[in-house]
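> call design_seq(struct)
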């Protein structure tokens, strides 16, 4: 989907770069990177640097950067396709847990129909687009970073370092602290859950992030508790 969009917008000078957030490296995402070759740039952010520098708290999220290297849209939800499960009736023989998962996913807002026209408008009109913000507007629209969020980033980074040193158990308390300090940051949660529940040679999946004895929460429990409607921050791209 991103490669198709890349090929559509590249003639207008838009360079789309997708970044996979995965501490475990390329095992889970290599298949997608290989499929995107040779035209679509795809990277792996093992250290979650884009979270820390750009304010990503979930995926997919994006920023828009102009020809001068200036942000013209701060971090925002960047869905480019609709609900993959569609509106088809759920078969009667589907297991209750899977039925609940499908129903939950369907309640997560889908904003591709709003997002794609905005992105295409910016590709066509550049700085003249009503969706291209000034530096002052970008700052005003960016989320604040209170002290507890900065501490959460430090805890998450320390947890990553410990995990990479081979001490998976030692990393858990730091991941948990990051979760408690910044509970709205789903990248922190999803990364920790994936490390605890996904086999080393398997692709990551939200639905694999099931309950464990390691963490208090899991994807379904936390999404249900906070409300699927609140899973992504509201999308507001047009200038005020």
């Amino acid at each position: 989907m991103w490669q198709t969009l890349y090929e559509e917008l590249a003639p207008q000078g838009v360079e789309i770069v997708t970044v996979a957030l995965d501490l475990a490296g390329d095992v889970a995402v290599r298949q997608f990177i290989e499929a995107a070759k040779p035209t679509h740039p795809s990277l792996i952010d093992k250290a979650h640097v884009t979270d820390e520098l750009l304010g990503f708290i979930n995926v997919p999220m994006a920023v828009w950067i102009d020809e001068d290297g200036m942000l013209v849209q701060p971090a925002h939800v960047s869905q480019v396709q609709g609900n993959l499960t569609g509106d088809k009736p759920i078969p009667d023989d589907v297991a209750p847990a899977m039925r609940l998962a499908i129903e939950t996913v369907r309640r997560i807002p889908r904003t591709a129909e709003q997002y794609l026209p905005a992105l295409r408008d910016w590709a066509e009109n550049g700085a003249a687009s009503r969706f291209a913000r000034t530096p002052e507007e970008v700052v005003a629209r960016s989320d604040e970073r209170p002290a507890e969020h900065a501490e959460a980033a430090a805890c998450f980074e320390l947890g990553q370092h410990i995990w990479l040193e081979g001490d998976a158990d030692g990393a858990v308390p730091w991941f948990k602290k990051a979760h408690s300090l910044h509970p709205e940051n789903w990248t922190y949660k999803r990364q920790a859950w994936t490390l605890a529940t996904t086999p080393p040679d398997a692709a990551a999946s939200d639905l694999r992030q099931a309950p464990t004895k390691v963490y208090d929460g899991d994807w379904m429990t936390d999404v249900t508790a906070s409300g699927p409607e609140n899973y992504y921050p509201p999308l507001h791209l047009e200038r005020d």
